[in-house]
Amino acid sequence: MTVRIFASAVREDVPLVYDPATELTHTPNRPVASGRVLLDDTEVALWPTITQREVHTRIPFNVCWSALVRCNLQCPHCLDDKNLPERGNHQGIAQLLADSDVLGNDISGGEPLLLRSLTELLHTLGSRGAAVSCTTNGWHLERRAPELAPVVDAVRVSFDGPDAAAHDHWRGRGSFQRAVAGVRAAVSCGIPVQLHGVLMQSTAHRAQSLIDLAAELGAVGVTFLQMLPIGEGVHLADAEMVSDANARRTVASLNWPDGLRVRLRTREVADGFTVIRADGQVYHNVRGATDIEATRPLRTVTDLELPLNEGALR
Asked: How far is CA 6 from the centre of its chain?
């Protein structure tokens, strides 16, 4: 049994529990107090999952905030737009997200561990009951894990392979060693860690090995992400994209130990997802998550409202 933080709320008379590690939203089968709550993740994993579309709320369940474009790595499948200006009033955006009905706030980038104010921003994001997480390449995680532990509910670390040869091919020399050291440090500090792996033609055959690595490192699970032809990834789309059907077959063929949380995020599920980018605008994945579009600058909570025809969120 692993007890960790989740976010609980009732939206449109539907009780919801959001998992900051897997990014899944569940419907509990017993009453759960609202706000940030300690729950047994084995119990939560047995509860049914639910999508944004099924609840019809106007504010998304969870948001990815790409607070900066800067990164110490240059991954060819990165979703970020490197040409965007960094215009974020970081503390202002963090407070606005905290004041909204969003259940889960994730800070990504770019590389969020380059932000000196990261711990303060995470503290603000979780100050009104939302669960908070950080998605990182892991390079600086070993150094920053102790200061993150009191303010973050989960950390997601990106891996493109189960060893240095495979991972560093995509992310650069030394990145695997630094990511592994970061995961070990985070786990030792009591931070739940979810490994993230992008499914591509060149990497899908290593999916089982990534699960084995997660178990070895003490991570709570693995999320396999369908590659999105967005940002830098558009240049790899023709050669590397795997269909959702093939991705499902790949994950269905895998084996993992009890207690490890393994999830596939298909492009179908990623369609409509809300992203706040470094330029301070609200974006949504569109056209089956094969593109991303800006809707409006984020100035008030109402700017987070989803279009009436918005698709399901992850």
From this structure: 14
Residues of the chain with pLDDT under 70: 1, 308-314
Contacts of 245 (CB under 8 A, 6+ apart): none
CB-facing half-sphere around the CA of 15: CA atoms within 13 A: 12
Cβ neighbors of 225 (< 8 A, separation 6 or more) are: 196, 197, 198, 199, 265
Adjacent-strand bridge partners of 224: 197, 264
Question: How many H helices and E strands in the chain?
Answer: 11, 14
d(CA 310, CA 301): 17
Beta strands in the chain (DSSP E): 3-11, 14-18, 25-26, 35-40, 62-66, 104-108, 131-136, 154-158, 193-199, 221-226, 261-265, 274-276, 281-286, 291-297
Q: How far apart are CA 237 and CA 76, in angstroms?
A: 11
| Per-residue tokens: 65 | 């905030």
Say how many C-beta atoms besides its own lie within 10 A of residue 38's C-beta: 9
Return the pLDDT at 1. Answer: 61
Q: For residue 232, give Cα distances in angstroms to 58, 82, 99, 152, 284.
A: 30, 8, 32, 28, 17
Model pLDDT, residue 87: 82
Encoded tokens for 145: 């894990």
Rounded to 5 degrees, φ, ψ at 140 are -105, 10
| 197 neighbors 176 (Cβ within 8 angstroms) | no
pTM, entire model = 0.94
pLDDT tens digits, 14-42: 999 999 999 999 999 999 999 999 999 99
